[in-house]
Write a structure and sequence with these properties.
CATH superfamily of the largest domain in chain B: FAD/NAD(P)-binding domain
Number of helices of chain B: 10
Distance between the termini of chain B: 55 Å
Helix content of chain B: 10-25%
CATH topology of the largest domain in chain B: FAD/NAD(P)-binding domain
Low-confidence stretches of chain A: none
Helix content of chain A: 10-25%
Number of domains of chain B: 3
Shape of chain B: globular
CATH class of chain A: Alpha Beta
Number of strands of chain A: 5
Mean pLDDT of chain B: 96
Strand order of the largest sheet of chain B: 3-2-1-7-20-19
Structural class of chain A: alpha+beta
Strand content of chain B: 25-35%
Mean pLDDT of chain A: 94
Number of helices of chain A: 2
Number of domains of chain A: 1
Number of strands of chain B: 27
CATH topology of chain A: Alpha-Beta Plaits
CATH architecture of chain A: 2-Layer Sandwich
Largest interface: A-B, 16 and 23 residues
CATH class of the largest domain in chain B: Alpha Beta
Largest sheet of chain B: 6 strands, mixed
Oligomer: heterodimer
Strand content of chain A: 25-35%
Shape of chain A: globular
Structural class of chain B: alpha/beta
CATH architecture of the largest domain in chain B: 3-Layer(bba) Sandwich
Amino acid sequence: MTIKIDVDMTKCQHYGQCVFEAPDVFRLNSDDKLEYVAEVDDSERGNVEAAIDICPMQAIFIVD
Amino acid sequence: MTDPVIIVGASMGGLRVAEALRRAGYTGPITAFGDEPYPPYNRPPLSKEVLASDVSLEAVQFPQRDATADVNWVLNTRIERTDLASNSLTDEHGHSHTFSALIIATGIRSKRAEWANPVMTGRHAVRSLDDAIALRAALNPGTKVVVYGAGFIGCETAATARKLGCDVTIVAPGVEPIARYLGLDFAQWIRAAHDAHGVQFRMQSRIDNTIGDDRITGVVLDDGSTLECDVLIEAIGSIPNVEWLAGNDLDLSDGVLTNTAMQAVRTDGTVVTNVFALGDVARFPNALFDDEPRRVEHWNIPTDTAKRVAEVAAAQLAGSDSVDEIVAKRFAPVPSFWSDQYDIHMLAYGIVGLADRSEMLHNTFDDDEFCVGYYRGDELVGVCGVGMRNVVMGYRAKVGSSA
């Protein structure tokens, strides 16, 4: 099982809060812009949900 | 039927603790009271992006998960009294509600100034969605705006009002904006940025009174001078919402005092094990720094304290043997916040206000991007940067430790 992740890049302000909740899914690149893995194992769901919760812009979604 | 867990406060902290209770395995009833007509919504954009564009519930409402679909949200209903001896609350309609555990998530409200002139039309706060809707409607190109207060909210709101084409003057008692928090050098840098965007400053000034009969037309400063304005935005601080808890011997001297398990503490130091507080209203010890309880009005605190409350409360309600062990666990969330003003994006970790000195860690105030460390003795208590987010984030794990 995998989950698909979508980030609304028109909302994302690259605050990086998600990085600490799901470090294997989200990171800021060398230009301080968000990069993420769009499809991850279901075992990451808890971390991704924590990232969704903490996102200041509420820009992260799990696409079911 | 078992009494529900009652959450008072239907904002982010209330939502997060309901979710966390389910995640922690609590399957019993949950009732959440909120005094606003809206379900939980995201407040930070109300002084920033959302205020600059489209203020609506849709723009800020939190999505809700299946796991909390059965939470009984009672909105538009203020809790007025609490009787901890009988585990009951009384709402504004006189109805009483008993609980198995009480979770206090009522947050803070904007402090409002008191002036002799009673006129309120044209006076605004920036806290709730209704505040933002009213303020947005009042901010138009050419509108004369006075912002009273030069903290983060005051500065962000001033920047947003400038972006909307208003004429903006910040009036505040301090020497420089946000200086008490960030230090004088950083504050002067912020002041320069606002200057460059055409914001006027009347620092080291207080507003003694307002002018206007039907609506505000100006303010009188403490040196006797006057400023014309159509809109007066009060950003002079906050007050914890604790009045509804009076009469129960709780320590409410600054928010709700709790232990490290977020359980409420009485004035005699004893703990009320089934009453919890979280978020902006909670004054809790953070093991990252020391054992001094503090209220922390930073972004991640409602979420992190909600998880802590849920972990303890769920174990307690289940009659688990491990409650004592869970209560004794180290609780040390790293506070985190950000601020956006114009194209300045600030990111911070820790409690910068604990510092006795600051030190430039990367670049200088002559650069567009820099990172400042805040120290209490040798201990890094906070870090705040403009831009260079990867660098700032790299210090997060070092907050609370000595360099």
